[in-house]
Amino acid sequence: MIEGDHQIFERDKWYVIVNPEAAGGKAGKQWETISGKLSTYGIDFFFRFTTHRGHAIQLAVDGLKKGCSKFIAVGGDGTLNEVINGLLRNEDEIANDTTVGIIPLGTGNDWIKTHGIKDIDHAIEMIAHGKTVKHDIGYVEYNESSGIEKRYFINVAGFCFDAAVVKQVEYARDKGNKGKFAYIQALIQTLFKYASDELKVIFNGKEISGRIFNISVGICNFNGGGMKIAPLAKFNDGLLDITLVKKIAKIKIIFNFMRLFDGSFIKLREVMAERTQEILIESKKSIYFEVDGEFIAKTNFAKMNLVKGVINTITGLDQSS
Ligand SMILES: Nc1ncnc2c1ncn2[C@@H]1O[C@H](COP(=O)(O)OP(=O)(O)OP(=O)(O)O)[C@@H](O)[C@H]1O
After folding, report:
1. Which of 41, 80, 167, 293 could link 73 by a cystine bridge, Cβ 3.0 to 4.6 Å?
2. Residue 306 has pLDDT above 70, yes or no
3. C-alpha 283 – ligand 1 centre gap (Å)
4. Residue 7: its pLDDT value, please?
5. How far apart are CA 18 and CA 21, in angstroms?
6. Does residue 79 have its Cβ closer than 6 Å to ligand 1?
7. For residues 163-168, average pLDDT
C-alpha cells in the first residue's frame, strides 16, 4: 500500500500513523514488514508517516475531521501521546466509538506493559481481535508565556527529576545517541547533578510544601522502560495516582534502585503514593515536566485532572468492554 493523501479516508478502516523515527529509526525500517502483517490479519487500513515532532497530533485531528474513528499509532509512547492529543483536541466532541491501538515500535514502550501487550505481533493480533477497554486520559494545565496550555497523557506524567531525565534523553538523542541505554545513561548523569526543587503540592486535601525530588502521576503503571513508578494506578478507575518522592539522599536512591522495577520503593519513608482526583503544583522557580516520555515545558504552575473512560484502547488484558 502506498502512503499519501489519495488514500481514501473511511470510517471503517484503521488510520495508521507511523513515526518512522521512533526507536532510533527502527519503526521506519520495519514498517513494510508490519504493513504486510496487518494485511495478513485482514486489518483494513491506510497510513501516513509523520515528518516532524508534533505531526501525529495534526494527523489525528485531520483523521477525525475526515470521519475516521479507529487509529493505530506505530511508534513509542510519544507517538501514542501525540495521537491522543489530536483526538482530544475537541474533547467535548469526541465520539463514543473512538478507538486507538498501538504497535509498539518505541524505545521504552511502557504503555503496553500495563495492558499485557507483549510485542509487535501480539499487538497486531489484539487489533485484529478488536478487544477494547475504556481508558481514562489525564491532563496537565500549565502556564506558559502564551497563557494556560493543556496537554493530555495516557500513561504517566512526570515533574522534577523524572522530567529532567527525559530532557537529558532528548538532548542525547539530538546529539545522535539513540541507543537503548540512552535512558539509563541520562538517568545516572541527571542523578549526580540534580537538586530537589522547593514546591507546594496539593492533593486529597493535603498540602505538601518543601523540597521535592520527584512527582510522577500515573494513569498506567510504568515509565522509564519498565519502572513501576505508579504501582497502584488503574487505567479506568477515574483517578490519578500520584507518587511523590520528597528530598532523599542520592545514596538511598542508588541502594533502592531495583525497587523501582517492582514498585516496592513506595514503602520508603520519603515516598507518598495515593489516588486522587486533582493535583496542584506550584513553585517559585519553574520546574521541568514531561508527559508519556515527551518533554513539554518548564512551568511554575500545574493543575492535573482526568477525563474518565473517554477513549477505547486495544488491550491485551482479559477484561474487555
Ligand atoms: N518524522 C519525525 N522526525 C523526527 N521526530 C519525530 C518524527 N515523528 C515524530 N517524531 C518525534 O519522535 C519522538 C519519539 O517518538 P516515540 O516516543 O514514539 O519513540 P521512542 O522515544 O523511541 O519510544 P518511547 O517513548 O516508547 O521510549 C517524539 O518526540 C515525536 O514527536
Report:
1. 80
2. yes
3. 29
4. 61
5. 9
6. yes
7. 96
Index of the ligand 1 atom closest to the CA of residue 78: 17
- Model confidence pLDDT, tens digit, residues 185-220: 899 999 999 999 999 999 999 999 999 999 999 999
Q: What is the mean pLDDT of the chain?
A: 94
Q: Residue 91: pLDDT above 50?
A: yes
Which of 79, 103, 174, 178 to mutate to test ligand 1, by most ligand atoms within 8 A of the CB atom? 79
Q: What ipTM goes with this model?
A: 0.97
CA 24 – ligand 1 centroid, Å: 8
Average the pLDDT over each of 55-69, 218-232, 283-297, 306-320 and give the range with the smallest value.
306-320
- From the CB of 86, is ligand 1 less than 6 Å away? no
User: Ligand 1: does its nearest atom lie under 6 Å from the Cβ of 77?
Assistant: yes
Is the CB of residue 293 below 6 angstroms from any atom belonging to ligand 1? yes
Whether the pLDDT of residue 99 is over 70: the answer is yes
Question: Of all protein residues, whose CA lies closest to atom 18 belonging to ligand 1?
Answer: 76
Query: For residue 258, which phi and psi values (nearest 5 degrees)?
Result: -65, -20
Q: Is the model's pLDDT at 274 over the cut of 50?
A: yes
* Whether residue 27 has its Cβ less than 6 Å from ligand 1: no
Q: Whose CA is nearest to atom 4 of ligand 1?
A: 52
pLDDT of 235 strictly over 70: yes
The pLDDT assigned to 321 comes to 43
Rounded distance between C-alpha atoms, residue 77 and residue 132, angstroms: 18
